[in-house]
Design brief:
This protein is an all-alpha fold and 341 residues long. It has 15 helices and four strands.
Length: 341
Amino acid sequence: MSLESMSPWLPYFWAGLIAFSILVYIIVDGYDFGVAMLFATAKSDEERNTVIGAIAPFWDGNETWLIIVGACLFGAFPAIYAIFLSAFYLPVVLLLIGLIFRGVAFEFREQALKARGIWEWGFVIGSAVATIVQGAAIGTMIMGLPIQGTTYVGDGWDWLAPFPVMCGLGLVVGYSMLGAAWLILKTEGAVAQRARAQLRGLSIAFCVFILAAFLITQDIDLPVRHAWEGAPLWHWLVPALGFVGLLGAFRTSRHDCPHERAPLAWCMLIIASAFGSLALSFWPYMMPYSLTIEQAAAPAVSLQFMFWGAIFMFPLVVFYFLRVYHMFSGKTDPVGYGLND
């Protein structure tokens, strides 16, 4: 295949690959962030070990998708990578600190004796901080960044505006919903029953968040609102699926519901719907609403060089990822992870 024939669609290939990786990351790292935040509600060491065991085989591998996103963004859209780091330098630092601290706390809590409580709270707080800054970054991009050409010209504090902070708190609720659904799937007994009650409450809280966000944005001139003016009918089906997912998550969280996979499936639909709605809002911009996908793309030679590596390596990553989930399917056995005292 010649460079000339590949050049027109390569930017969209890489944009699609990045979008897919972001969606997978939001779902898989989202549920383990959610489980970590719900860890604070466990009432005994046995329950805490069960909650930890539910994500022990997966949490480290889930972050592989964040690395994929960063690497692809750096190689395929270097201008976007530079703008994002300039605009979100402190949030990225806080995200990395949160990821590092939760990882250290995850390992140290089993070894600590007197300081176990400190590491357990570090696990919860590190996950919450990482979640909030991710949501704040999304909210800031929805509002639009001050960009001239390919240079960010803001002061780096846009993410602390009320709307981005609210989006950060909303993502806490969304990730916690995924976490509760994952605990329903992977655990039994008191932990699973509590997770069902938590999912019902979180579903209501997420509806409240959506309503509050809608009312607040009526007083803000957001570019994203203009993107939906005159949108075709099928565009509106994407956010509508999110409301179907909310209803499904609420109904299948009942204690008498025999379906353990259904709550997670509905929560994944909610996240996919929200992500798809944002993608439609931003299209065809890679950095809303300043640089399109084609404008932000690296030279065609670079995109083609990386393309051949991607079609070889990406299927291996997906295979390994699915293999791990298949290998550790079934209910959590804390003893199997060496987490019992």
